[in-house]
Design brief:
- The protein is mainly alpha-helical.
- It has one domain.
- Helix 1 runs antiparallel to helix 2 and helix 3 packs parallel to helix 5.
- The longest helix has 18 residues.
- The chain starts with a helix and ends with a helix.
Length: 97
């Protein structure tokens, strides 16, 4: 019973994950990966495309343009691309300030 409650809470955390505007992409990715890892420990596997969609959906509104670009003309989403694009964008913003 306890394990079911933990599993339910972790899934809620993952599917309800939303990046706050003051959070960096790296901090958000660390939280995302931590939740994924905790789910893996209890044998919950999430395929790469679903992880990519969950991550895209969890980004703050300031990354909506990235969401649009990433979803345009794509048949499948590649998690590595979803991770690298906002990270690169954040690094570029920091260099310009």
């Amino acid at each position: 019973m306890y394990m079911i409650k933990i599993l339910s809470n972790k899934k809620k955390q993952l599917y309800g994950l939303r990046m706050k505007e003051e959070t960096t992409v790296l901090e958000h990715l660390n939280l995302f990966n931590m939740i994924i890892s905790e789910l893996l420990v209890v044998d919950v596997k999430i395929n790469e495309e679903d992880k990519a969609l969950i991550l895209l959906n969890s980004l703050s509104e300031s990354y909506d343009h990235i969401l649009t670009i990433m979803l345009c003309d794509k048949e499948t989403l590649i998690l590595k691309e979803i991770i690298s694009t906002p990270l690169y964008n954040e690094l570029r913003k920091r260099r310009n300030h």
